[in-house]
Task: inverse folding
């Protein structure tokens, strides 16, 4: 799942939570205008966000919600209980979709129908309120439009239109166990302006058997015809499963009616006999059921209502037994009891429809309706007046009154998997774990003391065993807290597509941006510190690296330049590489400029390599305006970039080939919390040297150390390495001690890409420490990067190698 | 050109998009008896389609694409 979507889901959850809260507050204080505005804003944001990710179901419901809240905000629609219910329902639905997106990455097309229903339900509220604003103060008592129920059956299907060939194919499909579906696609009138071609879409209906075109209404005179208002409907006949059809038409779900067709209907239409209603059960049972349905739909205003309900219930229970549906009897009885207690047939009617909706969904020929035969089950409910519907909705819910998307308090199948935590809490946890790491390091000392001072070897060994256990746990803890702080680099990368697009448009250049390894993770602080330097580098590449399309063509390069930003992990470091295929940097120009600026002297200018020369752009003082305009332009604040990178213990290198492009490489630590240091001893004191600057440790015989003028140096594997004594670097006038073989311990460190040897008395172990920066009056001592506590309680000073020379 | 207007007929070829719908409408108003040749046509934008339907056109030549022709059968007459 891409991080943008992840963020969307997490934000949506927050927004949904916010919407529920606001709605509940509104319930207590319906006049709260601020609440209303806030509510609108939340729904609006959510809808806007959802549009980014092709989830039409989500957007459709939210759009309807937004329209409704807009009307409420402007006072054209009053807040009501029903409104809150519908909105909450819609938001629950959105929540369900979010869960589904999270678990499966997509929204199942089966939700399309629900989304249409919910959206229509929300919109219906706008329309009625507008129609009758005078009743708006008493929303509970007025006719509230029903949440539309699936209306399917009141359509006559011109099945007789089907050519013989299609019938044969349909028959084959039915024999093969496929479903038949009749689709009516009535495109929106303005659909052409949205780039839709409904005819094309209809023609490509999955598993289409037959298709027809019909005019929506009689054609106007040609002179009055607007060719760009869609006035045609498309009808198709398909053998594809319902889900596939819903999926195919999901973007226009509101404009498509999908009607299942039974083979009998086709057969009947072919024989041109009066098609009977599809008979899932015996004809007698069907007739009885239809009669009960008709009875239930009669007016409730009769004295003998309770008797009627009981009679219907008795008939129904007989029918259920006859068709082997005895299991449904308790549900029916519950509905009957509800009906009796409320003195209305509606609960039973609803139960009836939920129980027998399957056969009722199959189409009924129109003439059947007109001829006054047994009333078909479904449409009656639709035709009943609005008051009844309102009663249904306000009444205490009978069994299955409404398909709720309720996930109120009862169940939380998909509890959120992420929590938001204040960073300060994580930092505190981090510090505590750091202390554990230090505290645990005291155990080996203790073991050593137990053996040497108290002479209890047994105890010493046991302490060491315990230490191993605690060590393992502490390391895992440290590791997991690091994971918590980890963030993918996509967090900074995601701003680049936009930046590159805008900048390149402004500069009239064509640039393709390639992002690689966005999922690479690093500590939050590291990632955050990356942002500005990267923007700087990329902007430089765009501005001065990539040539204009004409120049590029003339050079035989593709017109569009490429900038690649890639992130990879190398052991405990993140490597960020930014390369472009632009014109690169001219080292001669850099050398001359650096010389003019006094950054290098004449001698250095003569012997400096091209590679070293281009890295001079990082030198402080190199970034001045005239350099920028004359030069290829790199150097604009490159020293700022370097400083920012070094602040998080990173390094930056630049390689460039004139005419071929530039490659800038940032190497950053994965995490800044724990520093690995090499401990060395000099003049009986311990010092830490950060591992990233240590190249190797060697012991050099004193005889091999040459003195050239006043400096010392040695030859290591054919290269001259300058040597310095740590004591002298720290201002102590003591010579380094040699060991018994008359060798001096030399720590080879990397200093700006060159190897330098530091002579010390002895090497100690390496340690993972929590580096505390120098504070107070010690801040000025730039030779030290900070201090750390060692296991035995002593303080270790960590050297800042770069500042020592 | 997906729609070619000739002296007495309109010839559609390939995918006839909606760009020329206005032109088609005007042409049909001037030539109510104009012939409609869809033989080489593979798809009609619904804007074109509904103009042909509204003008109650008779197809001079059906599309060679039989599936497409079957669709049009339900809406347009053929000579």
Result:
């Amino acid at each position: 799942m891409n991080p943008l979507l992840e963020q969307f889901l997490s934000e949506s959850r927050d927004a949904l939570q916010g919407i529920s809260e606001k709605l509940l507050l509104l319930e207590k204080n319906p006049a709260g205008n601020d609440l209303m505005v806030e509510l609108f804003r939340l729904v609006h944001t959510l809808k806007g966000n959802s549009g980014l990710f092709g989830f039409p179901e989500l957007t459709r419901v939210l759009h309807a919600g937004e329209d409704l809240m807009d009307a409420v905000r402007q006072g054209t629609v009053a807040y009501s209980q029903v409104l809150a219910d519908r909105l909450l329902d819609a938001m629950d639905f959105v929540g369900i979709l979010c869960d589904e997106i999270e678990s499966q990455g997509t929204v199942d097309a089966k939700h399309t129908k629900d989304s249409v229903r919910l959206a229509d339900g929300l919109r219906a509220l706008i329309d009625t309120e507008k129609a009758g604003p005078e009743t708006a103060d008493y929303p509970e008592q007025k006719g509230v439009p029903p949440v539309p129920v699936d209306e399917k059956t009141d359509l006559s299907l011109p099945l007789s239109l089907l050519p013989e060939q299609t019938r044969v194919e349909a028959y084959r499909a039915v024999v093969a166990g496929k479903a038949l579906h009749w689709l009516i696609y009535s495109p929106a009138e303005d659909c052409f302006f949205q780039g839709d071609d409904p005819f094309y879409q209809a023609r490509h209906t999955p598993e289409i058997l037959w298709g027809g075109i019909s005019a929506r209404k009689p054609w106007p005179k040609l002179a009055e015809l607007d060719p760009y208002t869609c006035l045609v409907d498309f009808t198709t006949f398909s053998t594809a499963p319902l889900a596939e059809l819903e999926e195919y038409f999901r973007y226009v779900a509101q404009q498509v009616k999908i009607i299942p067709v039974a083979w009998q209907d086709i057969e009947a239409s072919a024989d041109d006999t009066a098609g009977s209603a599809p008979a899932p059960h015996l004809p007698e049972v069907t007739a009885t059921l239809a009669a009960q349905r008709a009875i239930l739909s009669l007016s409730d205003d009769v004295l003998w209502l309770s008797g009627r309900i009981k009679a219907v219930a008795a008939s129904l229970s007989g029918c259920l037994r006859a068709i082997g549906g005895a299991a449904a009897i308790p549900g029916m009885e519950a509905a009957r009891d509800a009906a009796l207690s409320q003195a209305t047939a509606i609960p039973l009617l609803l139960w009836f429809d939920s129980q027998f909706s399957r056969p009722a969904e199959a189409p009924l020929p129109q003439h059947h309706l007109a001829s006054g035969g047994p009333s078909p089950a479904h449409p009656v409910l639709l035709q009943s007046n609005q008051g009844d519907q309102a009663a249904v909705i306000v009444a205490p819910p009978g069994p299955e009154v409404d398909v709720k998307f309720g996930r109120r308090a009862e169940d939380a199948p998909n509890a959120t998997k992420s929590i938001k935590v204040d960073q300060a809490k994580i930092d505190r946890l981090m510090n505590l774990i750091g202390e554990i790491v230090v505290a645990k390091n005291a155990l080996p000392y203790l073991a050593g003391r137990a053996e040497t001072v108290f002479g209890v070897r047994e105890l010493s060994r046991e302490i060491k065993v315990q230490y191993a256990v605690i060590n393992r746990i502490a390391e895992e803890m440290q590791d997991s807290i690091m994971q918590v702080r980890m963030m993918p680099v996509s967090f900074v990368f995601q701003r680049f597509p936009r930046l590159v697009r805008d900048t390149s448009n402004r500069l009239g250049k064509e640039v393709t941006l390639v992002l690689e390894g966005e999922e690479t993770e690093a500590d939050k602080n590291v990632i955050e510190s990356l942002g500005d330097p990267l923007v700087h580098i990329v902007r430089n590449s765009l501005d001065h690296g990539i040539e204009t399309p004409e120049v590029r063509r003339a050079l035989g390069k593709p017109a569009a330049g490429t900038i690649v930003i890639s992130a990879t992990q190398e052991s405990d470091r993140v490597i960020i590489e930014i390369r472009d295929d632009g014109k690169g940097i001219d080292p001669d120009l850099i050398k001359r400029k650096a010389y003019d600026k006094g950054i290098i002297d004449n001698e250095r200018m003569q012997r400096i390599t091209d590679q070293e020369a281009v890295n001079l752009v990082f030198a402080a003082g190199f970034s001045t305006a005239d350099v920028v305009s004359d030069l290829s332009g790199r150097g604009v604040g490159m020293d700022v970039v370097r400083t920012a990178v070094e602040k998080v213990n990173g390094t930056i290198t630049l390689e460039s080939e004139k005419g071929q492009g530039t490659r800038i490489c940032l190497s950053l630590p994965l995490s800044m919390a724990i520093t690995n240091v090499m401990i060395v001893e000099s003049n009986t004191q311990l010092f830490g040297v950060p591992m990233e600057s240590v190249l190797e440790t060697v012991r050099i015989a004193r005889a091999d150390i040459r003195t050239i003028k006043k400096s010392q140096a040695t030859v290591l594997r054919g290269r001259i390495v300058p040597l310095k004594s740590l004591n002298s670097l720290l201002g102590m006038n003591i010579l380094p001690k040699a060991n018994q073989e008359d060798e001096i311990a030399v720590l080879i460190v990397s200093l700006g890409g060159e190897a330098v040897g530091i002579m010390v008395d002895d090497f100690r172990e390496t340690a993972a420490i929590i580096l505390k920066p120098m504070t107070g009056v010690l801040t000025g001592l730039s030779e030290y990067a900070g201090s750390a506590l060692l296991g035995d309680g002593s303080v270790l000073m960590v050297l800042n190698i770069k500042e020592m020379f | 050109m997906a729609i070619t207007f000739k002296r007495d007929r309109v010839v559609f070829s390939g995918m006839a998009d909606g760009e020329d719908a206005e032109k088609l409408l005007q042409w049909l108003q001037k030539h109510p008896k104009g012939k409609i040749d869809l033989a080489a046509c593979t798809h009609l934008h619904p804007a074109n389609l509904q103009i042909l339907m509204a003008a109650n056109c008779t197809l001079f030549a059906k599309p060679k694409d039989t599936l497409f022709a079957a669709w049009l059968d339900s809406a347009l007459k053929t000579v």
